[in-house]
Design goal:
- The structure is a single chain.
- By secondary structure, the chain is α+β, with helices and mostly antiparallel strands.
- The chain has one domain.
- Helix content is 42%, strand content 12%.
- It has 3 helices and 4 strands; from the N terminus they run E-E-H-H-H-E-E.
- It has a 4-stranded antiparallel sheet.
- Helix 1 runs antiparallel to helix 2 and helix 1 packs antiparallel against helix 3.
- It is elongated.
């Protein structure tokens, strides 16, 4: 996956990375992606991993470190706050698990997520 720096988001969806939709692309039924931009295709597993990575590294790991070393309260508070701030990622994972069939790919277009199944030609 290639990461693109999108600059500051000014509220205009037309300024976010866009791409042409495949003929069979289906948008997520609810608001899909939040705070992430990119137009590359991803498998269902990679998409879920991408969504949960920040919550794991910035939330769960610091909190577990706090549980092991209770005197590191700063790590515990940071981890607890970071896990709670990942609500949009949890929604994205829920949508991917519930709506994407096995073998489907997903991509972002502006602030919306789409999934599609490859059509053999």
């Amino acid at each position: 996956m290639i990461l693109h720096y999108a600059g500051k988001y000014d509220g205009d969806e037309r300024n976010l990375p866009q791409r042409e939709h495949p003929a069979n692309a289906v948008p997520f039924k609810e608001m899909g992606m939040m705070f992430v931009v990119g137009t590359e295709d991803m498998s269902k597993g990679r998409f879920i991993f991408m969504c949960l990575c920040p919550n794991l590294f910035l939330g769960a790991i610091p909190f577990v470190i706090f549980l092991i070393f209770p005197y590191l309260t700063g790590a515990g508070l940071f981890g607890l706050i970071a896990v709670g701030m990942g609500f949009a990622d949890y929604i994205n994972v829920y949508n991917a698990v519930r709506q994407m069939p096995k073998g489907a790919k997903t991509y972002l277009c502006g602030m919306h997520s789409y999934w599609y199944e490859r059509v053999e030609s």
